[in-house]
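Justification of resources, computational component.

The compute hours requested in this renewal are based largely on the per-chain cost of generating structure records like the one below. Each record pairs the submitted sequence with a full structure-token output. That output is archived, and it is also reused by downstream analysis tasks.
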Amino acid sequence: MLAARIPTLPAAVAPVVVGTTAAAHAGAVYPLAATGALVVALAIQVGTNLANDALDFLRGADGATRRGPLRVTHGGLLPARQVLTGAYLCFAVAALVGLLFVRLYGWPVLAAGVLAIAAGLAYTAGPWPLAYHGLGELFVFIFFGVVAVVGTAYVQLGRVDSVAVVTSVPVGLLVTAILVVNNLRDIETDRAAGKWTLAVRLGAGWTRALYVVCAAGVVATPVMLWAAGAGGSWFWLPWLALPVAVPLTWAVVTRSDGPTLNYALRRTAQLHLLFSALLGAALLWR
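The structure output for this chain reads:
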């Protein structure tokens, strides 16, 4: 459970919630398909976390000065080979469930699934790991935002839904904010280990600005819903997340100590799930 990084798993749940409510907004909900999408999302999330745990240690990114929560490989709780085996098993589960969707919907689901699993592995594995070249945020935005929301709606509707596409953007921004605050905390240790994350490349100031941009999705979403005519009279519901988003953003912008940023990491994951639930409710209550 520690290696799976349970506090980060709302990042996998939230886009499935929004994708399912987008499908309901379009007139079709299939609980079995939604459950399958959730299993795939969780398996890819946990697989990516496990691979990151082991490979960051093997690459020397998790040193003695690390400020984040305990990693099981770095802490000597599990050997790297065992953690990597767990990662591969998670990706295998995602592939097996995904094959059921491929049988129903064909090559679009196959292409999305292969790219998602490949990107999850390439996040810290291979000769050119994404996280080590400043592409981690882009990976998260695309696969845990756009692909996850649109894909969840797709396996229930059998088509790409415009509301799912629109709502995938703020969901992607907030899940990206989770990684942004994580990498903000680790700038010094990542730089020392040669891990050139986007935060290392931008510096602390611009990384905080990026977090503000991501969090601004909470403010912009109701306007987007209203403009698209998707939220009805309840378009404003996502604004109920502002009492969490505003002080959290202030803490990230003004504080740099490890405990505060670890707290902000957990709270950003919670904000992501809360916002997604409110966004889903806005789509349902028309």
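The domain at 6-284 is CATH 1.10.600 (Farnesyl Diphosphate Synthase). DSSP finds twelve helices and no strands in the chain.
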